[in-house]
Amino acid sequence: MTSAPAARRASDASGTTSLTWLPPAWGRVTRRAQALRVPIGRFAMTPRGLLTGFAVVHGLYLLVLLPTILAGQTQGDLPLYRLWAEQAKLGYWPVIDMPWVYPAGALAPIMAAIAAGPYNYQLGWFVLMVAANLFAILALTGGLRRRSGYRAAWYWLAVQVLLAPVSMLRLEGFAAPLAIAGLVLLLRRPAIAGALIAAATWIKVWPAAIAAAAVTVASQRLRIIVGGVAVSVVIALTVVVFGGGANLFSFATIQGDRSLQLEAPVATPWVWATVLGLPGSEIRQNYVLATREVAGPGAHLAGDVVGLLMPISFAIIVLLLWRARRLAVRQGRLTSALEQRLILVASFALTAALIVFNKVGSPQYMLWLAPIVAVGLVVDPRAWRRAAGWLAGVCFATTLVFPVLYMPLIDGDPFAAGVLLARNVMVVGLFVWSVVVLWRAGSETVRERDAAPLPAPAVAIAGV
User: Fold this and answer.
1) What are the pLDDT digits (tens) for 303-350?
2) How many H helices and E strands in the chain?
3) Helix (H), strand (E) at residue 304
4) Which of 123, 125, 133 is CA-nearest to residue 51?
5) What Å distances lie between residue 171 and 174, 186, 203, 282, 398, CA to CA?
6) Rounded distance, CA 427 to CA 421, Å?
7) DSSP secondary-structure letter at 451?
8) Phi, psi (deg, nearest 5) at residue 282
9) Please, are residues 446 and 327 in contact by the beta-carbon 8 Å criterion?
10) Is the CB of residue 124 less than 8 Å from the CB of residue 174?
């Protein structure tokens, strides 16, 4: 008689794994699921299938938000956004009349969402987010015509689910689609790409990392710069004309003296010091910034250290990128495809540095990395597949930390702190991985087929 393990390994005539070891009812359900997998997969790779998935994801969001919308309330950061928008309608504008935590371009979505009135602010924001995500999907798929971008588009939809509810309730939801479009168009329409990346940077600063990578490597860097400068001049002149010149760059300094935020990777030792009850360590509320921070021996010094390490890491990554480009030029293999691959991995490394060496660790920061990975799945899906998987795990762990386990984490719960630790280790590991990729790309022994090798992120993570 065949043993259960042998039955599990058996294969039927069609080549599918035998399910005889399962209870009959379970076996029937599993066989039906296997039979549907291929047609569902084919349908997902069609325009109708992708748009159906898009509608389902956003329809579920609408159902969840419907009670809030009907009550005229807001969730996430939107209460603060609505307050700023209402103040602006009364004549007291962020940036113009006061220093502001965000760049001036963030006013565009914040003010657009109040077009239908303060009561409908949540609905207005949701409609804008649907439009922004549709823009990202169309950019990744070339207007639904480029089938090679469908997996990337599905990945972007998956990120929206994995980072729920943060993905639909933060300004990153507008900066990220602009960054996606900029990366997609970088080599074909460099001036437009530069304008899109600049617009994204004027909403949230992180896309400046993409701009730095592109200007370092791209042969058409002048056009990228022209597009970016054009948008920046328009925004800056608008602020100056309306009297906000003194506050134009206030976003860069307004939070300089804050303490380590609870979720930041650098705060992890003090989180665990609090969990273990070490003297002087605590998790406390910052009422001014409405966030939780850590305190304890050395915490303030650690904040100062990462403040120095961030620009240092930026300089090192840019040097590694220039080194890889110079080697490619010397070996006569600098093609547009190689430029694109180098820009992507350097953008990832620079953006990850903004997270790893940061006193703040907000959950929406994972939306800084996801656009780069999504475009990577279009450009070189084989190379970016594992990174995409690791980042998906990071996004899931991030949502577990906030909002699911956030209150236990504040109370020093070991399990919640363990999830945060795992998330931060994965983030640091992905950063190390990207730096290793750049180092290898600039090594003298690199061959053309290894021009921008992307080793498994697990190797880097295991070494953290």
Assistant:
1) 999 999 999 999 999 999 999 999 999 999 999 999 999 999 999 999
2) 19, 2
3) helix 299-330
4) 133
5) 6, 23, 7, 30, 17
6) 10
7) S
8) -160, 160
9) yes
10) no
Q: Which residues contact 8 (CB under 8 A, 6 or more apart)?
A: 17, 18, 21
Q: Are 206 and 368 in contact (CB under 8 A)?
A: yes
What is the distance between the alpha carbons of residues 86 and 110, in angstroms, rounded to a whole number?
Answer: 10
- Encoding tokens for residue 376? 């990577």
Residue 187 CA to residue 218 CA, distance in Å, equals 8
Segments of the chain with pLDDT less than 70: 1-34, 36, 256, 446-464
Strands 282-286 and 291-295: antiparallel
Please list, in sequence order, all residues whose beta carbon lies within 8 angstroms of the beta carbon of residue 61, skipping any fewer than 6 positions away: 126, 160, 164, 168
Report the amino acid identity of residue 244.
Answer: G
| Distance of alpha carbon 243 from alpha carbon 106, whole angstroms | 17
**For residue 25, what are its two tokens?**
């009812």
Instruction: Find, among 117, 119, 87, the residue nearest to 100 by Cα.
Output: 87
Asked whether 205 and 399 are in contact (CB, 8 A), the reply is no
CA 102, 106, 109, 114 torsion-angle sign: positive
pLDDT of residue 354: 97
State which amino acid sits at residue 442. Answer: G
Residue 85, token pair as written in the block: 């928008």
- Residue 254 has what pLDDT? 81
Q: How far apart are CA 378 and CA 148, in angstroms?
A: 6
- DSSP H/E element including 33: helix 24-44
401 secondary structure, DSSP code:
I
Please classify residue 44 by burial: count the beta carbons closer than 10 Å to its beta carbon, then call 0-12 exposed, 13-18 middle and 19+ buried.
middle
The 3 state secondary structure assigned to 125-142 is HHHHHHHHHHHHHHHHHC
Q: What is the predicted pLDDT for the residue at 289?
A: 74
In degrees and rounded to multiples of 5, residue 147 shows phi and psi of -65, -25
- Decide if 118 contacts 82 (C-beta within 8 A): yes
Distances (CA, A) of 22 to 13, 19, 35, 220, 372: 18, 6, 17, 59, 42
